[in-house]
């Protein structure tokens, strides 16, 4: 229905989202976060049904019986995670290569079994250290 008076909706800035944490799940600040097939925020894992959400801004322990339920703030903007170990990285030619994650803090150039890439290498340092630009949830969902 068209407005007939002022109406200011409640809004939130893009790039930061809050999601209810799966019961008893402990998410640490800086963890990769997914949304489980049950619709709750959980630590990222190579688990069927997980959808990449972003990077946890703070820590939270899920308690779905709490009122209100416990939420975790997630950076969904596609931030660049600086100078992290990326298993399989060997040199400058890795820039632009897709990055997968097997858990909430393990980056890998090898494809996982059940989930898609969470980002791409944007800079190579040395050894296996790289910068990784994480995908936004929309970019993750757009991957085939």
Produce the secondary structure layout.
Elements: E1 16-20, E2 26-27, E3 32-35, E4 41-43, E5 51-56, E6 60-61, E7 71-75, E8 80-87, E9 98-101, E10 107-108, E11 119-126, E12 129-134, H1 137-142
Parallel strand pairs: 8-10
Antiparallel strand pairs: 1-7, 2-6, 3-4, 3-5, 5-7, 8-12, 9-10, 9-11, 11-12
List keywords for this structure.
144 residues, mainly beta, 1 helix
Oligomer: single chain
Kindly report the spatial arrangement of strands forming the biggest sheet.
Answer: 1-7-5-3-4
CA-based shape: globular
Percent of sequence in beta strands: 35-45%
Distance between the amino and carboxyl termini: 37 Å
Reading the helices and strands in chain order gives EEEEEEEEEEEEH
**Helix content bin:** under 10%
Number of strands: 12
List segments where confidence is low: pLDDT < 50 over at least 5 consecutive residues: none
Q: Round the mean pLDDT to the nearest integer and report it.
A: 95
Question: Could you characterize what this model shows?
Answer:
The longest helix has 6 residues. The chain is built from 1 helix and 12 strands, in the order ββββββββββββα. Helices cover about 5% and strands about 40% of the residues. The strands form 3 sheets. A 5-stranded antiparallel β-sheet has the order 1-7-5-3-4. It is mainly beta and about 140 residues long.
